[in-house]
Amino acid sequence: MSVGAGPTDPRGRDPEANDPEVAAVLEGRDQIQLDDDMVAEATVAATATARHESLLVRVRKMPVAMRVKLALSGNKEARQVLAHDSVKLVQSCVLRNPRFTLEEALVMSKNRSLAGELLRTIADQRDWVRNYSIRLALVQNPKTPLQVALGLLNGIQDRDMRILAKSRNVPSVLQSQAKRNILRRDGGGGGG
Fold this sequence. Notes:
Elements: H1 20-26, H2 36-39, H3 45-61, H4 64-73, H5 76-82, H6 88-96, H7 102-110, H8 116-123, H9 126-129, H10 132-140, H11 146-153, H12 158-166, H13 172-187
Helix pairs in contact: 1-4, 3-5, 4-6, 7-10, 10-11, 11-13, 12-13
């Protein structure tokens, strides 16, 4: 099992998704045991920082199947580490963790190295996109698929719309649409 990200298979999926051990984890029939400190929420913040380094090292040594299981059931500290994993499948499993919070969704929405399909997954969650900060972060993230960003653009406030219209960090199509939205809002619907 490879720890790093490999090329995707011809169907566009990670080769790790075809791994029988990973499939067993995703179907809930695995026998993998995770350490309690990776699954239970930390109670003392001071020890969390000290354990973070060792957690990062421990996670990097794990096979993909074990990282998938940890992403699905791990605590906040483990989810933070796995949200930056090189395997997209692991990152997508972090999003499926039942303890995944709005705060974590916001951090991932701002992550410019996150794959577009994961940003689309965040955008598809209505509870998350209702949060204005997440919506704005998705629109501002150049990796967000264009259709998704354009769909979220109408929910952006005028002040932020003006910033987007001038931003060179977003696709030109999105920048142009932001300019049109400003003109329409200012002009009462004309010129759009």
